[in-house]
TrEMBL record, chains A, B:
Biological processes, Gene Ontology terms: protein maturation
Organism: Candidatus Stercoripulliclostridium merdipullorum
Pfam families, alphabetized: cobW
GO molecular function: GTP binding; GTPase activity; nickel cation binding; zinc ion binding
Name of the protein in question: Hydrogenase nickel incorporation protein HypB
Highest taxon above the source species: Bacteria
Length: 228, 228
């Protein structure tokens, strides 16, 4: 028996996604739930990174995960194994999630008692970057086998992300990947971005990502109090 | 000095892309130019595969290459090094090419004296599968580091492709990739698809892909004669 549900989400009816994303952010602020949007190409290691990150955070934060895919439930099944609250979203062929689709997911997940919800967006380095999901922060993964030239070809994703995880560093000897050149290209697009090299396979760097998340959630909660 | 041009293509005005794709196919048939559409995730190895494939085909076919990217000209620069005719297309942020965008590229490339034009589509496992480019055949690459579960998550791309190259097999020892499970998932979606394991890095399997292309071009030219 599965410990998660699969939800078919509907295409949005809102014309102004940016406005709707701001509304969702305000709704989540009221509930005290921090939303993190995780994006990457297919196969860059989002789900494996999440399983390790959940383990690193589970004593500090109550976490819910939304797995968005065009089809299948393999990712939700993997996350369910960690014991975290999880839901599988099917996008009906859509290549990204917008704010209203994210809201449908959150309503089905339920936020009661949660501190942090992580949306694993559809694997796609192009379209998800164009749609604000209502998240507080955007995280992205670039994996070593994809190559260090990706910031040149897909600049928007690197521009709108707050943190870049460079994954599969355990396989760096196998591939020509120039970390310094990649970092320089990314920083040129987005000087404020934090870059964290990780291996979701070995766990290297995951602690640093977990610390980054905790820091963001803490700062955001403090903003809450100041405004309240 | 570069030996290629960079063209900014415009968004299409045609409402019915399928009809327009059929029209483009007919136009190209009249010119005797076979169009192959090559798709994959970012970083799966499209450009490296093309450089090796051009080398394997250059005595048999006159080849033109269209490199489609949101930004940069790194791929056209790489292909120009092979001596093949090449043009860089910028999609203006678009995540895929449709038939009219492809036609704009072909007009700028010029087909005089060419037997085969290969379109390297935008790196994206979702959207390009939804738009017929006017190609005679669709080729796709899945790379080993992406994982064997991708046919489950991105079924349309595997369904509409005529040939699947499984690339980076030289790195197979580094990653958990079950070839038989992957092939079974793909064949369930698309029993007629041809699956060719390759390593664009070492050149393994490229001859088989080159033979596949030659066979397709030959069959298509024969169809031409029979109808003429």
């Amino acid at each position: 028996m599965d410990s998660f549900r699969v939800i078919e989400i509907k295409q949005s009816v809102f014309a102004d996604n940016n406005k709707d994303a701001d509304a969702l952010r305000a709704e989540l602020k009221q509930k005290g739930v921090f939303l993190l949007n995780l994006m990457s190409s297919p196969g860059a290691g989002k789900t494996t990174t999440l399983t390790k990150t959940i383990a690193a955070l589970k004593d500090d934060l109550k976490i819910g995960i939304m797995e968005a895919d065009i089809d299948s439930d393999v990712d939700a099944r993997t996350i369910a194994g960690t014991g975290a609250k999880v839901i599988q979203l099917h996008t009906g062929g859509m290549c990204h999630l917008d704010a209203d689709m994210t809201r449908q997911g959150i309503r089905n997940l339920g936020t009661e008692g949660l501190d942090l919800v992580i949306l694993e967006n559809v694997g796609n380095l192009v379209c998800p970057a164009e749609f604000d999901t209502g998240s507080v922060k955007n995280a992205m993964i670039l994996s070593v086998p994809e190559g260090d030239d990706k910031p040149l070809k897909y600049p928007l994703m690197f521009t709108i992300s707050d943190v870049l995880l460079i994954n599969k560093i355990d396989a760096a000897d196998y591939f020509d990947f120039d970390f310094d050149a990649c970092a320089a290209r990314v920083k040129k697009l987005n000087p404020a971005i934090e870059i964290i090299p990780i291996s979701a396979k070995t766990g290297e760097g995951i602690d640093r990502f977990a610390e980054w998340i905790k820091r963001q959630v803490k700062q955001w909660n403090r903003q809450e109090e100041n405004r309240g």
